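ok, trying the design again with the full structure, not the truncated one.
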């Protein structure tokens, strides 16, 4: 499959991909190593929320990420690892070493009785072993469920239990900036409530003392010594599960999005090579954490299946100072740099000397993901990091889509700041109005849906296909609803305007307001809560909580702190409310629905134009809320 390299080629390939998707995707998929070729390219029915790709195909994704590169790339660096501590030597892991380590982890898991289809929870920081763990699962056909190591015990419990994980892979601790976090203690706390977990394997990182439960807990360094680096890859069906990854829903518990082997492999590889125009021997750095889908698709599977050198960075952008990203980019001669708007906004506030101290000439292509990028951040990134020379690919996609959907193709698509621009080949967006009519033509604004399947789309929500159907396929029958609003301008370019549901995006992380509300409600003084997002300079959106207490609190600050600590404990520090306003009531309609529109406006600082409040049970509560706005 030839990679698109000109606007003309884009138009031609896009057209072909829509007119004959079967031929298009068969062509893309023929670039891989299949144990057995597929019988049928796809089968779909959005009314039933059923999608299958490369039916009958047999493969193992790790053979495509590792084995097939060995004849010519054994000595090439696969993973370039950079520690949190700038003084700790970085590590260069070759494709041969990665292969050996992945196989060892595969065997280590097999020794603990892990078989094809078993779920393994991975709760680890950004060290090379997390890559061995993920790929080690894929090697033997175990389903990995990576839980971001910034989540609390409560979040870990929900995720482990929902998918019935048998084994947990973790570390003694982790480093993040100047903080040290005792991960194993969090795991110990969680496992008291996780009956399906039989074993944990603990990798050393921080060397802090940990307690090991006899019969359950094993040391990675002991177990890994017992196994060989010969681990034949399990033969997987295209539609066998590769992984589960949890994402927040607008209501209820997090959704375990299920991704399968064949389509995910084909799509992440194709989009990686197309969007970033990856060239042999380049160094690619995606700054996401492997705990998010971005890390799965564009730190590991996409780059490794393309034989790239991928950077794994353990630290944070602000440690030891605000120049760390640029230091690392210079040090490792990074060519393609992919990060989140929230990171750009925070770095843009620092003195320019933090950028200018470093030579970023090797950087050729920039990318962003996770939320809409604002004009100011776009220009700063373009001018100061890209020296006015590098294209910025603003990539729109979701945990559910598995890979990039709407994005410029570097050096091919015309750039338009704050626009994700055009759909990639095979992607068929449709903009809908609130009444379910498709808005055709240019210059329209509405809800973003997708009317045709693509290979990496999530197949279901683990254990709850009905919820999958209800969440994504019922709002606009026959279409996949993204939950995002968008504009399609005069050029046919897309601009994503943000969520239209009760999900807020804080620092690029997707959070359900319902989840935060229920965490706050656990406080014994709290009677009811409503959470909305508000514009935040750095995080994009911040969390604003309106809280009703049984008795009006005497010591508001103390209670605020308790609520923040509680949310941090139940969900994780990223979900902590930035603002907590104590109120005596919430604006509710007669049917009891909270009018979040009003709460959002107040949180945004709007106090006059609150729209129609006549349908509220008690319109007076609006004045109180407005007067007490933070
Ligand atoms: C939501 C998905 C995709 C991996 C990281 C987030 C928002 C994502 C963009 C973008 C505007 C974006 C959307 C989407 N989003 N990328 N380039 N421009 N918005 O994955 O946690 O599943 O969140 O992030 O609202 O629906 P996620």
């Amino acid at each position: 499959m030839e990679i698109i390299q000109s606007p003309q080629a884009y138009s031609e390939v896009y057209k072909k991909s829509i007119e004959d998707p079967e031929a298009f995707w068969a062509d893309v998929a023929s670039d891989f190593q299949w144990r057995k070729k597929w019988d049928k390219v796809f089968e779909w029915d959005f009314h039933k929320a059923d999608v299958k790709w490369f039916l009958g195909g047999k493969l193992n994704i790790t053979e495509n990420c590792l084995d097939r590169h060995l004849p010519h790339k054994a000595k090439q660096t696969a993973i370039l690892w950079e520690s949190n501590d700038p003084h700790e030597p970085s590590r260069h892991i070759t494709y041969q070493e990665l292969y050996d380590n992945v196989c060892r982890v595969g065997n280590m898991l097999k020794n603990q009785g892990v078989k094809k289809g078993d779920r393994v929870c991975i709760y680890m920081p950004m060290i090379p072993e997390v890559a061995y763990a993920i790929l080690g699962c894929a090697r033997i056909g175990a389903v990995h469920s990576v839980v971001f190591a910034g989540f609390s015990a409560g979040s870990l419990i929900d995720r482990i239990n929902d998918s019935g994980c048998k084994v947990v892979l973790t570390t003694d601790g982790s480093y993040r900036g100047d903080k040290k976090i005792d991960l194993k203690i969090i795991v110990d706390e969680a496992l008291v409530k996780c009956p399906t977990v039989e074993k944990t394997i603990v990798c050393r990182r921080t060397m802090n003392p940990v307690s090991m439960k006899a019969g359950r807990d094993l040391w990675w360094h002991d177990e890994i010594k017992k196994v060989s680096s010969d681990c034949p890859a399990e033969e997987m069906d295209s539609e066998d599960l590769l992984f589960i990854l949890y994402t927040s829903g607008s209501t209820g518990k997090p959704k375990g999005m299920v991704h399968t082997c064949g389509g995910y492999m084909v799509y992440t590889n194709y989009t990686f090579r197309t969007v970033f125009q990856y060239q042999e021997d380049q160094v690619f750095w995606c700054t996401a954490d492997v705990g998010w889908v971005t890390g799965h698709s564009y730190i590991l599977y996409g780059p490794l299946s393309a034989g790239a050198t991928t950077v794994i960075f353990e630290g944070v952008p602000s440690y030891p100072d605000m120049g760390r990203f640029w230091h690392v980019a210079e040090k490792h001669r990074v060519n393609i740099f992919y990060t989140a708007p929230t990171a750009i906004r925070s770095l843009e506030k620092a003195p320019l000397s933090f950028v200018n101290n470093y030579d970023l000439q090797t950087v050729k292509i920039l990318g962003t993901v996770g939320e809409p990028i604002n004009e100011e951040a776009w220009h700063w990134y373009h001018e100061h990091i890209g020296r006015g020379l590098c294209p910025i690919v603003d990539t729109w996609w979701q945990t559910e889509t598995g890979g990039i959907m709407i994005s410029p193709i570097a050096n091919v698509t015309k750039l338009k700041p704050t626009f994700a621009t055009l759909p990639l080949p095979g992607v068929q967006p449709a903009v809908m109005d609130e009444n379910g009519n498709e808005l055709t033509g240019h210059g329209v604004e509405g809800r973003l849906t997708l009317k045709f399947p693509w290979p990496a789309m999530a197949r279901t929500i683990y254990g709850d296909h009905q919820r999958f159907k209800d969440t994504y396929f019922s709002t606009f029958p026959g279409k996949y609803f993204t939950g995002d609003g968008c504009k399609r301008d005069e050029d046919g370019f897309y601009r994503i305007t943000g969520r239209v549901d009760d999900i807020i995006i804080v620092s690029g992380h997707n959070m359900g307001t319902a989840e935060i509300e229920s965490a706050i409600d656990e406080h014994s003084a709290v009677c009811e809560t409503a959470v909305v997002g508000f514009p935040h300079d750095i995080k994009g959106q911040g969390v604003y909580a309106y809280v009703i207490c049984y008795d009006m609190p005497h010591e508001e600050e103390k209670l605020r702190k308790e609520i923040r600590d509680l949310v941090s404990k139940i969900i994780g520090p990223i979900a902590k409310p930035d603002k907590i306003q104590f109120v005596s009531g919430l604006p509710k309609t007669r049917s009891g629905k909270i009018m979040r529109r009003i709460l959002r406006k107040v949180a945004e600082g709007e106090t006059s134009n609150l729209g129609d409040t006549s349908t509220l049970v008690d319109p007076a509560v609006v004045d109180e809320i407005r007067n007490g706005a933070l």
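Keeping the full-length input from now on. The radius of gyration is 24 Å.
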